[in-house]
Automatic annotation (TrEMBL):
Residues 61-89, 91-120 form the 4Fe-4S ferredoxin-type domain. It comes from Desulfovibrio psychrotolerans. PROSITE patterns: 4FE4S_FER_1 (PS00198), 4FE4S_FER_2 (PS51379). Residues 331-348 have a biased composition (Low complexity). Signal peptide: none annotated. Keywords: Iron, Iron-sulfur, Metal-binding. This is (4Fe-4S)-binding protein. Gene3D superfamilies: 3.30.70.20, P-loop containing nucleotide triphosphate hydrolases (3.40.50.300).
């Protein structure tokens, strides 16, 4: 199960929520992988003490033009085809790799076979494991089967090369590495040359938490895309409401289910609550505003370890979230196994606060690429409205 944690603006407590939810789930016995998709400013690892298992250089594909094979000015097909202006004609083809999205179109289109694929470094990806001690508190769930020798959770984090403009390829690389990890179910203990099996318990379904970058632009959409559910974190202020509205519009365009966590509840006003109620968007939890919580976070500690009331709040959040996602999933399975009519009617009423109703149907934007592009367009329009 993939759960994205996102927000329309920075500073709402998205990473705090991600790391505390990851720790809560891990302590409850779930195998958890936390993916820090905020590759421009990764900081989820600061809350844990991960043992870094490996660091890999991440590359993105770029075209390499062999000018000796290029037909020349009479052609210029690659220049015309590249919508990102990564290739221009200046007496010969000039390449601007920083603008290249790696779509491969120019290589396909070149009639002379003058363009081949090369790569450039865009950053690094690290995989680490967090031992039980780092997420332990006095109260450990009896279901928990982690032992002192097994990692409580895995952490995947990316770091964008300084000066690199585009983070989506690195975010995609994170997901690619995650897929490989899942296939192998392998890890490497830090400091050991040989690969050894890391026995992350699989008694329950693995939960992947994606800590997304803030905003509604391409890196956020890449990070959220395809998640089973998205938690939008906001705060009860006019700024929080404005950016929440942008994020909601983006998720509706992506047609992904979502709910909202109101962080620092108790400060500000109730406009966020009123708007959410009018939109029939579920409030998954209200995390109370407290000076104590701010101090704990500033010290790099987990809230659920330091404050009992936060432990209860995160337990309640997971209970609500699990209920909504399971309900939505069961509905979808029923639809695909022929129980469509009755299940669909029931879904519309029973999941009103979750998976179905806050994703608006639109048959014109049914492909993934179209939804992605539409989400960007929608976010851009909303931003300028
Ligand atoms: S498409 Fe190929 S042949 Fe045509 S201008 Fe580009 S590199 Fe040259
Ligand atoms: S791979 Fe795509 S984005 Fe990159 S230069 Fe070629 S056409 Fe442009």
């Amino acid at each position: 199960m993939h759960i994205a944690i996102a927000s329309g603006k920075g500073g709402t407590g998205k990473t705090t929520l991600s790391v505390n939810l990851a720790a809560h789930l891990s302590r409850s016995g779930f195998p958890v992988t936390l993916v820090d998709c905020d590759v421009e400013e990764p900081n989820a690892h600061l809350f844990f003490q991960p043992q870094w298992a490996w660091t890999r250089t991440a590359h993105a594909p770029v075209p390499a033009v062999d000018s000796s094979r290029c037909i020349g000015e009479t052609c210029r097909i690659c220049v015309t085809e590249c919508r990102f202006k990564a290739l221009i004609w200046m007496g010969e083809i000039m390449e601007f790799p920083e603008l290249c999205h790696g779509c491969g179109l120019c290589m396909e289109a070149c009639p002379a076979g003058a363009i081949t694929e090369s790569t450039r470094v865009i950053g690094t990806v690290q995989m680490g494991t967090v031992q039980m001690d780092a997420v332990r508190a006095e109260s450990i769930s009896p279901q928990n089967s982690h032992t002192a020798d097994t990692p409580a959770l895995r952490l995947l984090t990316g770091s964008l090369r300084v000066g690199e403009a585009m983070s989506p390829p690195l975010i995609r690389e994170l997901f690619g590495q995650l897929e490989q990890l899942d296939q192998l179910d392998m890890g490497v203990h830090a400091g050991q040359a040989e690969r050894i099996r890391v026995s992350v318990p699989r008694r329950n379904e693995e939960i992947v938490l994606r800590d997304c970058p803030p905003g509604t632009s391409c890196p956020v959409i890449t990070s959220m895309d395809g998640a089973d559910y998205t938690i939008l974190v906001t705060e009860p202020t006019p700024f929080g409401l404005h950016d929440l509205q942008l994020a909601v519009e983006t998720l509706r365009t992506l047609k992904q289910p979502f709910g909202v966590v109101i962080n620092r509840s108790g400060m500000g006003d109730n406009r966020v609550d009123e708007w959410l109620a009018a939109q029939a968007i579920p409030v998954l939890a209200r995390i109370p505003h407290s000076q104590q919580a701010a101090t704990v976070c500033a010290e790099g500690q987990l809230l659920i370890n330091a404050l009992p009331q936060m432990r209860d709040a995160y337990a309640a959040l997971w209970e609500r979230l699990h209920q909504i996602v399971t309900q939505g999933r069961n509905t979808t399975e029923a639809e695909t196994t022929g129980e469509a009519a009755s299940a669909k009617a029931s879904a519309l009423s029973t999941t009103i606060h979750g998976v179905k109703t806050n994703a608006r149907p639109d048959t014109e934007t049914d492909t993934k690429a179209a939804r992605h592009a539409a989400a960007l367009q929608s976010a851009s329009e909303a931003h300028h409205a």
